[in-house]
Design a protein that fits this description.
The protein is about 75% helix and about 0% strand. The protein is an all-alpha fold. Keywords: Membrane, Transmembrane, Transmembrane helix.
Length: about 80
């Protein structure tokens, strides 16, 4: 039994925030030079992508749920 449903939008948001943390860590340790404005597209792009994926996932789940309820309503039991 699953404890919760898989939410790919949250996974993508987490991956992009981890990427931002890795970029800042590399800059802080001197491994590379990352300007501050690089984080804006990384974080904003990741959040926009995560929101889009979450919206599509919600639509798919809502559609499947309505199909499953429609099948039960039409069955002669």
């Amino acid at each position: 039994m699953l404890r919760h449903e898989f939410q790919p939008g949250r996974l993508i948001a987490g991956l992009f925030l981890i990427l931002a943390a890795v970029l800042y860590t590399g800059d802080a340790t001197g491994a590379w030079e990352a300007p501050w404005f690089v984080m804006v597209p990384v974080v904003a792009g990741g959040l926009c992508l995560a929101g889009s994926v979450a919206a599509v996932t919600g639509l798919i789940r809502r559609h499947r749920r309505s199909d499953a309820q429609g099948d039960r309503a039409e069955s002669p039991t």
